[in-house]
Structure formats: C-alpha cells, structure tokens
Amino acid sequence: MIQQNAEVRSNQPVKGQHYRMELRVGDTFEEPHPGQFVMVRLPGRLTPLLRRPFSVHRWFVASESEAVLSLLYRVVGPTTTGLAELHAGDRVDLLGPLGRGFTLPNSGESVALAGGGIGVAPLLFLADRLLETGTAIEDLTVYIGGKSEQELLCTSEFSRLGVKVQTTTDDGSAGDQCLVTDPLEQRIRKDPPDRIYACGPPGMLDCVVGIVRTHGISCQLSIETMMACGIGACLGCAVENRKDPGRYLHACLHGPVFDADRIRLDFR
Ligand SMILES: Cc1cc2nc3c(=O)[nH]c(=O)nc-3n(C[C@H](O)[C@H](O)[C@H](O)COP(=O)(O)OP(=O)(O)OC[C@H]3O[C@@H](n4cnc5c(N)ncnc54)[C@H](O)[C@@H]3O)c2cc1C
Ligand code: FES
C-alpha cells in the first residue's frame, strides 16, 4: 500500500452521472489485484476530510516507470462531484491498493460475472485478468443490470473483449425488463457456471446469495460498505461473520471481496 498524488490522464463522462477517470501512477504503486480498491481524496481541499473508497476499474502498464489506474464513478456527493470537475494534469490523492480481491478460478472453469449499476466497476478489471490468465472467452458471460439505460455501464467495453453480455433494466429502457439475477438464474438452471462473481446493491447481492445457495455454486461478492479509513483503523466497515455469528469482519481488510457464504449482508 502506498499514498501517491496521481496525475489525471483523462476524465470523461460516460453516461448519466457516471464518469471514467484514468490516473497515471508511478512505479512505486503496487500492481492491484481485481477487486482491490483505493481510498481517494481531493488534494488541497479541506472537505470532505475523509478519503472515499473506489474499486480499481482497470489497470495497465504504460511504461517501465508508469502504470494507468482507472476509476469508474457515479457522482453522488462532494468527493465524486470534485472528481468530475478535474481535468488532465490535475492531481488526485490515492491510497492503495487496499483490501482483498477476487480469487481467480481454476483452469477450465466457466465463469459468470454479475454487476448492478456502479457495481460493474471492479468486474471489467476482473474480466481483463480472467482472459489474461487463461479463462476461455466462451467460458465467460457477464450479466449487467441497471435501473435504466443510463445505469447500464461498460456493456461496450465487455463486448469489445469478446465477452457475452446480457443486459437488464428495471424500466425496460434497454435490455430485458427484469432483474439482473433473472437471466443469471435461468442460465444456472440450464448450464450452471463453475463460479460467479458479483458486485452491486445489497438487494441484488442478497438475491445472488439466495440463488447460489439453492444451486450450490461457488460465488464471491464485492461489497460496498461505508468506509472511513480503509485500513482497519476505525472499525467502521464491520460485517457480520456468518460462520461465527456475533463476530465481525472488516470489509476494508478481510474484503471487500468475500465468499458469499462468509458474511451476513445486512451491513447497512
Ligand atoms: C470497496 C468500495 C468500492 C467502491 N467502489 C466504487 C466505485 O468504483 N465507483 C463509485 O462510484 N463508488 C464506489 N464506491 C462507493 C463510494 O465510495 C461512495 O459513493 C462515496 O461515498 C462517494 O463519495 P462522495 O464524497 O462523493 O459522496 P458521500 O457524501 O460520501 O456520499 C453521498 C451519499 O451516499 C451515501 N453513501 C456513501 N457511501 C455509501 C455506501 N457505500 N453505501 C450506501 N450509501 C453510501 C452517503 O451516506 C451519502 O448520503 C465504493 C465503495 C466501497 C466501500
Ligand atoms: S474502514 Fe476503517 S476499519 Fe474498515
């Protein structure tokens, strides 16, 4: 983990309230693993005082001394509003990479990714890594859901990788009008994948947990609890350990990626 004032390489609106930012990080920044996150602060601003967590959305090595780390973010409050105002050459204060990421599948396993809304952010990096490490393109499917077309993110990026993409929206403005977990469950009934990786709002993750439990499928979830420090110091990100009720895990240290059967999801 390292703190770095990273330079903004680009910062583009994606759609609706969503933006994608590329940051140049120096060679002292450790290569992240899919599912890890960074804590972000806007340099030179007194508020908000606390950093905010963002998943690593993508990563590539640009040269011997420079790598590029991308964030995909939704504008919801002061930090994300401030991020959206930045331009190439501006600076962002990063701490990371933090937390535990996804466990990659065994060779030859089939994989389904399920992302709801901004929860798709860490899944593109995971897809990049899966394809680099030998998951066959025909063994990878991504299910992306959103409230509306404006919240369906990264569909073209996944398609460009050659990955099968299935989309759903709550209002029917794009894809099938249903929950993202509906086509996932239909697929499981016909041809269950060996592993599922999911990130999204708590209701979606709850539904994924119910499905994988019913069908006995190995699944990891990336959860988005509130976090104040991101490094295990404030105890603000506690999640109950399902296997040891009354005991708590810390999303920032033991997660944010957890095996689906390891935690209780009522963390808010
Ligand atoms: C591990 C992790 C990874 C994340 N990755 C991303 C990402 O890739 N892209 C992205 O856009 N966001 C991500 N988030 C969520 C992001 O950290 C928050 O939205 C952040 O608080 C925004 O900061 P802000 O100052 O703009 O708004 P804030 O003022 O912090 O928040 C605005 C509103 O959202 C509420 N809020 C903040 N965090 C959460 C939360 N976790 N759950 C529910 N409500 C919340 C606040 O109470 C407030 O009402 C992630 C969170 C975690 C824990
Ligand atoms: S966010 Fe402070 S302990 Fe996890």
Question: How would you describe what is shown here?
Answer:
This protein is an alpha/beta fold and 268 residues long. The chain folds into two domains: 2-98, Beta Barrel (Elongation Factor Tu (Ef-tu), domain 3), CATH 2.40.30.10; 111-259, Rossmann fold. 19% of the residues lie in helices and 35% in strands. The protein contains five helices and 16 strands. The chain has helices at 78-84, 121-132, 155-161, 181-190, 202-215; strands spanning 2-15, 18-26, 37-41, 52-55, 58-63, 66-74, 91-98, 111-116, 140-146, 164-169, 176-177, 195-199, 218-222, 238-240, 248-250, 257-259. The strands form three sheets. A seven-stranded antiparallel β-sheet has the order 4-3-7-1-2-6-5. It has a seven-stranded mixed β-sheet with strand order 11-10-9-8-12-13-16, with helices on both faces. The longest helix has 14 residues, at 202-215. The chain is globular, with a radius of gyration of 18 Å. The protein starts with a strand and ends in a 9-residue tail after the last strand. The mean pLDDT is 95. It binds flavin-adenine dinucleotide and FE2/S2 (inorganic) cluster. Flavin-adenine dinucleotide is lined by residues 37, 48, 52-55, 72-74, 76-80, 118, 121, 224-227, 256.
